[in-house]
Amino acid sequence: MEYRYGAKKLSPVVFVAPMMDHTDRHCRYFFRLLAPDVGLYTEMVMAQAVIHGDRERLLDFDASEHPLAIQLGGSEPAQLARAASIATEYGYDEINLNIGCPSDRVRSGGFGACLMIQPELVARCVSAMREATELPVTVKTRTGIDDHDDYPFLKTFVSTVAAAGCETFVVHARKAILSGLSPRQNRVVPPLNYSIVRRLKQDFPELNIVVNGGISELAAVSEHLETTDGVMIGRKACADPRFLSAIQAGVLNELSGRVWSAPDRETVIRQMAEYAEQQMQRGVRLHHITRHLLGLFVGMPGARRWRRYLSEHAVLHGAGPEVLVNSLSYGDSG
Ligand SMILES: Cc1cc2nc3c(=O)[nH]c(=O)nc-3n(C[C@H](O)[C@H](O)[C@H](O)COP(=O)(O)O)c2cc1C
Q1: Taking residues 118-138, what's their average pLDDT?
Q2: Which of 30, 71, 192, 263 has the greatest number of CB atoms lying within 10 Å of its CB?
Q3: Does residue 144 lie within any of the structural domains?
Q4: How far, in Å, is the centroid of ligand 1 from the Cα of 183?
Q5: What residues make up the domain containing 295?
Q6: Is 43 in the pocket of ligand 1 (CB under 6 A)?
Q7: What is the pLDDT of residue 136?
Q8: Nearest Cα to 142, choosing from 182, 102, 109?
Q9: Where residue 301 sits, what CATH number does that domain have?
Q10: What is the pTM of this model?
């Protein structure tokens, strides 16, 4: 399959959101088994860490994870450009800039959602990154921040950043409230506003607009794809990863012409056991892998028993991939 990030017609069209402490390489490997055509994102990685940190640990990934975007955090054009260039060498498919994170730590660092009020600076960051890489440079943002929450504010932000060459915007369809709410509350308290995202697409038909936030039903995925170019799924993918397989078997198979049916849980678990074996040889702890699988049986008989077995046994001293194989007798793995 040919991937066309940033092209007129987006491909992929369904993405799993960047999520700190979740979408690490093990999680992405697992998600890829469940849906061959979803676009995956890394957790946010600070540009500074890419430049000065342990690159192998921060940036390495498995070839099966393509198509894969790296999400960068930062607000220094030169630093972001250098990080984009390093990420390009590592083989990512897209470089995404985080303009949506509301956490105190991120805000005090002067990046994330608070950059929405500095569209010129974001545009400079995008320009510098584009000069450093051939890959599409995209932006993930919110609909607004604090009192800057009307449509003209969002429109000015998008047009300013688009003028610097950003062709794809992922919009979390709620504003961020920067004082008084934790990141977690900021994903629940500000109301969802999909219509403002649809309006953006109407006003900027030449841009790719990907909608994100609260999408957890198959029907909603299809409906959003009628009015926007892409859909991004966050928490639902972690809580119920088989949702990704359902999306793949439906709308994504249709679009790609693939004849793909979801592997049963036993197949997935055996593949993850093989993966765990390889990763453990490199020093990875078993539960760093298995923690991503805990939602695999959601809605099935025996789900709680299976989850409890896996979470209790994967942390034991000397636990190895056999824990995954043994877990098969605790859930209905069809
Ligand atoms: C645990 C967690 C960590 C997150 N980390 C990031 C992040 O690193 N970068 C980012 O842009 N958004 C982050 N988000 C926000 C998600 O990407 C997404 O925008 C948000 O969860 C709304 O989508 P959802 O309703 O489908 O979960 C995070 C969300 C969660 C739940």
Answers
A1: 97
A2: 71
A3: yes
A4: 9
A5: 265-330
A6: yes
A7: 96
A8: 102
A9: 1.20.120.1460
A10: 0.96
C-alpha to C-alpha distances, 140 to 26, 99, 131, 166, nearest whole angstrom: 23, 6, 19, 11
Residue 102 near residue 176 (C-beta atoms within 8 A): yes
The pLDDT tens digits of the residues spanning 52-83 come to: 999 999 999 999 999 999 999 999 999 999 99
On the question of pLDDT at 159 being above 50, the answer is yes
Ligand 1 pocket, 100 CB below 6 A?
A: yes
CA geometry: angle at 176 spanning 171 and 177, to 5°?
170
Which of 93, 79, 169 lies closest to 125 in space, CA to CA?
A: 79
Ligand 1 midpoint to CA 100 (Å): 9
The mean pLDDT of the chain is: 94
Ligand 1, atom 10, lies closest to the CA of 18
CA torsion sign for 181, 186, 188, 192 is: positive
Q: Residues 6 or more apart from 213 whose CB is under 8 A from it? A: 172, 173, 174, 187, 192, 194, 234
Task: Decide: 18 in ligand 1 pocket, CB within 6 A.
Answer: yes
What is the number of domains present in the chain?
A: 2
pLDDT in tens, 173-190: 999 999 889 999 999 999
What is the distance between the alpha carbons of residues 91 and 69, in angstroms, rounded to a whole number? 10
Q: Is 114 labeled as catalytic in the residue annotation? A: no
Residue 12: name the closest of 247, 259, 272 by CA: 247
